[in-house]
Amino acid sequence: MDKLWAPWRINYIRRNRPQGCIFCRAKKSKLHDYVIFKTKKSICLLNIYPYNNGHLLVSPLRHIADIELMNEEEILDMFKSLKRAKRLLQKVLKPQGYNIGFNLSCQAGAGITGHLHLHIVPRWAGDTNFMPVIGNTKVISQSLEELSKRLKDAHA
Question: Is this structure's pTM higher than 0.85?
């Protein structure tokens, strides 16, 4: 029998999540393992509970909950960061497609509602199979540590 090893998910299962906003915590730490890059107005980091390998999050540095609260400089910077993040994923993982978007409010699927962020989810032909349907399990084939290092190396 094959085993699925994903020890980083135990905190999600147990709901032992750190308190406070993950984006605000990440922007304060220069050595945060999963921050891929930071700009003057935004931050890009790995999602530690990814839908797929390479799932990145981009958010404004300012703690705001809605697009309506963004100023023009934040909008431009965030979308430049989105473009940079997509370029990095293309270089490192070579996905065949992407799901990119916002979930605004818990009713729309947002797990973090207080700090606006967008998701960049790389996709490949055949990246879905019976595991999510039958086993309610998604197989992520690369560790967050390894992927973080590869993305940061490509960014340097």
Answer: no
